[in-house]
């Protein structure tokens, strides 16, 4: 049965990579086969899927859709641009702004919010927006690991480790991922300053976006506050974070529909939820649960330990840089969902605190996605925006910014995590 599970698992990944437009179907069919063959017992399927993660992602996507529709992000970007003296500082300000937003909002949604502002500036100055949009995308992707709601990989980590919102700031009394990511972002921003050192064109004052609906902004702030509050309350349901996000989304949707009285808006908002990602994750939870059930995850963990000779530093380094390499070409959601139980098994074999290994995985997988144009959904979205505007983006255009940015962020995060957690 173990051999069959391994073959199915490898086949699943080959199809996920070969058929990117059908990833959800592949994951769902694979999960079904695992159940039909008895690799994953039917009675354990619902318990294997992390519903807290699924509900959190769905609710956050819905709230973000309402937030974007309110035009508040565009207004915030306008206010930032009004205080920048030239193109260089405008790009830096927009990249930092996209990073800040992305710590609380999905990376792709962040790029969709901020990129139009950069496009407007570049059109006014008659310069190419390619470098500006790439900078916004990589900064957005970087900050996704900063908080529990910043990225799907963070939500997966939080669900697997039982981390709450505040744990991303301080965990077990030590500085956690938020601060590690901020140091990485600071070092990477210095790289951006050097890359854009010659962009000194002055910017005229832009017309300011008008916001008439502040309720989605209140919802987003309420979500953050309630997630923080829930993290301090004892005996909360395991799905409390998902319930908070979905509850606030339902409230926001109800108010928007009552205000507009448009059935089309209700349908349109629901379409903004990424059902492909949700279905993909549900299927992967079952697939990974299946290979765990028959002992494949433990075998992979033993291989890691064998290769490193039980040396914690070597295992940590291998995890970080292997994750960087893999995430440069494979969607980090798929990779992290697979590797979390593997890291748990490695930690069990070694003994001691597993935190450094989990954090190493996230640093490598999330920050490493900026190495190539296809390494993260935010990068793909950014290139899609540029293509629609008639701009071709070569791999060289992307790596000119992505490679130094990624190396600066990953190396600083890699060193800092080791110094804090060992």
Automatic annotation (TrEMBL):
Does the UniProt entry include the keyword Protein biosynthesis? no
Q: What domain of life is recorded for the organism?
A: Bacteria
Keyword entries, A-Z: Cell membrane, Membrane, Transmembrane, Transmembrane helix, Transport
Q: Which residues span the membrane?
A: 26-42, 49-68, 88-121, 177-197, 209-233, 239-258, 278-297, 303-326, 333-350, 356-386, 398-421
Protein's recorded name: TRAP transporter large permease subunit
How does it sit in the bilayer?
Multi-pass membrane protein
> Which Pfam families does its entry note?
CitMHS
Q: Name one GO cellular component term.
A: plasma membrane
Indicate the principal place this protein occupies in or around the cell: membrane
The cross-references to PANTHER family, in alphabetical order and at most eight, read: P PROTEIN
Task: Give the species.
Answer: Proteiniclasticum sediminis
Cite the InterPro entries for this sequence: Arsenical_pump_ArsB (IPR000802), Cit_transptr-like_dom (IPR004680), Diverse_Ion_Transporter (IPR051475)
Q: Where is the Citrate transporter-like domain?
A: 13-364
The family assignment reads: Belongs to the CitM (TC 2.A.11) transporter family.
Mind listing the GO molecular function terms for this protein?
arsenite transmembrane transporter activity
Q: Has UniProt tagged this entry with the keyword Transcription?
A: no
The cellular location(s) given in this protein's UniProt record come to: Cell membrane
